[in-house]
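Hello again,

I reread your note about wanting to compare the complex against the isolated chains. To keep things tidy I'm splitting this into two emails, and this first one only covers the full assembly. Below are the input lines as submitted, including protein chains and any nucleic acid or small-molecule components. They are followed by the predicted structure of everything together. The single-chain runs will come separately.
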Amino acid sequence: MSQSTNPFTQFQTDADRVTADDDRRRFLRTSLRGYQSTRTATQNRFLDYESARIAASDAKWEAIENLDIYLAQFADKLEARGATVHWCNDSEEARNAILEIIKKHDAKSVIKSKCMTTEEIHLNQLLEKEGFEVVESDLGEFIVQLRDEAPYHFVFPAMHLKKEEINTLFQEKLKSINTNDPEELTMVAREVLRQKYLSADIGISGANFGVAETGMISITENEGNARLTTALPKVHISLMGIEKIIPRLEDLALLLPILATAGTGQHLTCYNSQLGGPRQEDESDGPIEMHVVLLDNHRTRLLADPEQRDALRCIRCGACLNVCPIFKNVGGHTYGTTYQGPIGSVITPHLRGLKDWKHLSHSSSLCGACTETCPVKIDLHHHLLRNRRNAAGKGQGGIAERLLMLGFTVVMRRPWLYRLAGSLGKVGHVLTKPIHGTRIDPFYAWKKTRDLDDPAKQSFRQYWRARK
Amino acid sequence: MVNVLERLGHQVDYPEGQTCCGQPAFNSGYFPEAKKVADHFLKTFADADLIAVPSGSCTAMIRKFYPELYQDSPQSEVVSELSGRVFEFTELLVNHLDVTDVGAKLEGTATYHDGCHGLRELGIQDAPRKLLENVQGLTLVEMDEAQSCCGFGGTFAIKFPQISTAMTQVKLGSAAQTEADYLISGDPSCLMQIGGYFSREKSPIQCLHIAEVLDQQ
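Full-complex prediction:
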């Protein structure tokens, strides 16, 4: 993933590379097939999964539609228990808020549990530049950090790597033993990480949900690393997008299992923690300070769009990536975004600009597998279509495409012209025979990998007339 | 499709002024242009009792996306009324005309590919299978991920040919595993994509539209 090229060129180049890598694609497909069968089995254990989806999307919808009220309630409750809430408009404000806290405590090392929002604001790069040691404690994140890579998938950051590759990486970077055994590899990481928890001054986490009613963040995980990250260092900072708010504590009773089911196919993840402030006077453990950094970063721009604001219901389960044929064939890094897959293609144009990111909405066959699977019923593939409409409406498709569409309209509204175009097509087909299959063949993009039947000798209309 | 419908005793007309439903423009984001083409469709088919379409994708365009194009317009009522008269061929036979056996015969093994628009926009899944199960001599075998996209996706196939082709490559793998003689689908565009790739890869699997199968005597 190169930063210097424009996002569209980078996307095409990376897509060329990954689609040609049959071995990696097969590996992705096999992993995701495993996910899909586990998830289907878990879904079937719901009394009525469809009703659960509706209820989950209703809960999130209520929060999004009343975000101002619930955010304020959330912040008030947290502050009443001694936490500090920071309201940040954009990445820069959030980065500065976090940096200030770290500097104030004269900290040297930072431990993090999985948090895509920190990826969104490029926090690690900043902290490392400022001279802090930053360690990712989620195993997948730890692995991609060692490789100096972005997460491949926002739920499974290292899903693209085989155990043999992780073995090589650990030997190289951690001087570990030579083993392909996943359990032994995990123990290697664990040994390194345990020390880091104990020595870290600051723990940074994300939040899967922010419960307005009680003023708590809720963190979902499988490794226990988020508990250690938020409990051992003397300062805990949680960064969350404002859309993570949910109205009531009891909503978690549904949202936790639905996130686990859609995300990993588990009934519930191994650990779910609710944190409502720093260590209280009568408590013996927990951080001395707790900061919750609330990030807008153009989420309110999406909120102002009545057609697409349901995308803010997203609980970042990653299910839409797991079923997406585009994701399965181009992989996560190709997107060049913090949030990959269908949801990323929908929201990135809102968060980072339509002009540079509209190609993600075109890079879809609009098959609808994402919408079908989304646990909170976001109208994902139709939003891709709406992004296309918005881009075309702004003239971002270019002159050639506009002319092509104009030509299409002119012909399709006039049956005689349609028939003439059909006949001319046949003549053209014969005349262009010498260049068929070459790069100047107008159908080159198609014919490079696919055959194309010759135009039928008789049109259906001619056949119809003869038949009568 | 005409042959099958006539054999079942229906009178079929083919309005010669018809062109396209406008989906290529719509899916590219050019909604006003698509609407102009849709205007032509509405005019051409205004008098039909039922409109039979040999494509789930075109049917979805008319039934699901026309109402979106015409919302808040004076024609919105006409459009929603017409939408109710448009049927994809297999759903017309099975759900509307209550026919599951058209008396067709074809020897061999077949696997069915669900076109995404028919499947997810219109919910067509059982109708084509019921019809194929009743084709004499034909054994239907489900392929792995029959419901995953073939990779066509309109202009997507041209704008992102490498991804589009990779998707069809997966489809060929699933189809080949079934050892079927035929891959059948209800969408000409899927068949153009799948057939074009299968033929390039010299796959022995023959790609057929379901109407062609149901017409076999």
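For quick reference: The mean pLDDT of chain A is 96.

B.
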